[in-house]
Amino acid sequence: MEFNGRHIETWNNCLRFISQVVEPRQFEIWFSKITPVSLQDSTLTVEVPSQFFCEYLESAFLDVIKAALKKEIGTGARLVYTIRPVRSQGAMTYPQGPGDPPTNKTISISTWQPSGNPGPFVFPGITKVQVNPRLNPSYNFDNLVVGNCNRLAVNAAENIAANPGKTPFNPLFIFGGPGLGKTHVAQAAGLAIKKQFPELVVLYVTGNEFKTQYMDAVYVRNKLTDFLAYYMKIDVLIVDDIQDLASQGTQTAFFNVFNHLHQNGKQLILTSDRPPVELQTFEDRLLSRFKWGLSVELEAPSFETRLRMLRERAFREGVNVPDDVLEYLATRIKTNFRELEGALISVMASSTISHSNVTVEQAARITENIVGEEESSLTVDKIQGTVCDYFGISRDTLLSPTRKRQVVQARQISMYLCRKLIENISLATIGNETGGKDHATVLHACNTVSDLCATDRVFRKDVTGIEAILVKANH
């Protein structure tokens, strides 16, 4: 290990290279906090503030970091991270009880009329408001099973909880399919904030509730100003299922609330069943603000994560479920935590009522109506292979960057059929397995194929023909 300062000089040279590629604000946020530790042979060791910091560097800036290291050290360069020491955390204890619901301090709302209603949760004539955070104590970080499917979102939420409104993750936009834990992660951040900063006013609300309150304020009470004044008093606003803000008026109201909170250093956490690029009914000015912070996707949990969740939930409930039953459930149910939890609850109920351990055969009967048919065995590889065979092109050609019309259309059809035929697959996954395309490219391909199917009879015949081959082969 070297202590002659060469590691500092090497890292400073890397920083000069990186600063020419990365935007100044991003450079200040992510690279100013990195400290060089040592340089041994071709391995440079640096210290970063947290595990999340390391993971985000790898996900967002890996290419430019690699280029800088190669330029300074050579082709065999390696970068090793060490985490800056923090004070030790208390051990997690089981079973984890729900605890008491958090409360907010009283806030004052100025209304236009003395008898006016200052907000959607307030009785007429009251200007001192006790805001219910509406957080479920069970949705805490201790009860959240972390795996590769959600680690980035959880780490971001924990960073926000430690310093709300003062991290680069504002807003934090969490998206993914149903049952993957978006609400749990968002509420866990809210609960942790209330625990560490009890003076902050935290509010959880769904997109549909916000829309209903807005319509009531405008069309029933004629109190839009008071509605906005109420929301602008919130320190941490969590909006679940933001995609439900479909109407222009509701979006305008939320735009004003968002601007006020963000400009005043308040924290926003949003969840959606789709990424910002797929919120087609949203105004561009609102979509651009959703992208100011960090957008992170929750994916389907791996077998190991599913099994760990089942074991921890059974332990918290104090019910003994045999390992072979838990492994069966983890193998049988693959798409989301919600179905998995529902199946486990049914199994535990049967075990409790019968005062006996449940067998795999009993678990299969119990969960038959919950899980339904086995999910499709179609994969991206199978769909791409079928499309290639249909058009007489190779897989390498399909995934290449060529812009030849036939290849482009075949590539677009494969992405369209992946999205249509594979349940709960994300645009990001389709893009990654189609030559590293991004969300916008996959969405554009799907829309293009849909439009051409509606207007071009020959093209529609090709698409339906490939789909028929896939469906027949899958049964």
Describe, in plain words, how this protein is organized in 3D.
The protein is of the alpha/beta class and 475 residues long. 52% of the residues lie in helices and 10% in strands. The protein has helices spanning 6-19, 24-31, 51-72, 151-162, 182-196, 207-220, 224-231, 248-263, 284-290, 303-317, 323-332, 337-354, 360-371, 380-391, 395-399, 405-421, 427-432, 439-455, 457-473; strands spanning 35-40, 43-48, 78-83, 106-108, 128-130, 172-175, 202-206, 236-240, 267-272, 294-297. The chain has a five-stranded parallel β-sheet with strand order 7-8-9-6-10, with helices on both faces. Strands 1-2-3 form a three-stranded mixed β-sheet. Strands 4-5 form a two-stranded antiparallel sheet. Helix 8 (248-263) links the parallel strand 8 and strand 9 (267-272). The longest helix has 22 residues, at 51-72. It is globular. Residues 86-98 and 112-126 have low confidence and may be disordered.
Characteristic key phrases:
alpha/beta
Distance between the termini: 61 Å
* Low-pLDDT regions: 86-98, 112-126
Largest sheet: 5 strands, parallel
Oligomer: single chain
Order of helices and strands, N to C?
HHEEHEEEHEHEHHEHEHEHHHHHHHHHH
Number of strands: 10
- Supply the number of helical segments: 19
What proportion of the residues form beta strands (DSSP E)?
5-15%
Classify the secondary structure makeup into a structural class: alpha/beta
Order of strands, main sheet, comes to 7-8-9-6-10
**What shape does the CA trace take?**
globular
Helicity, in percent?
A: 40-55%
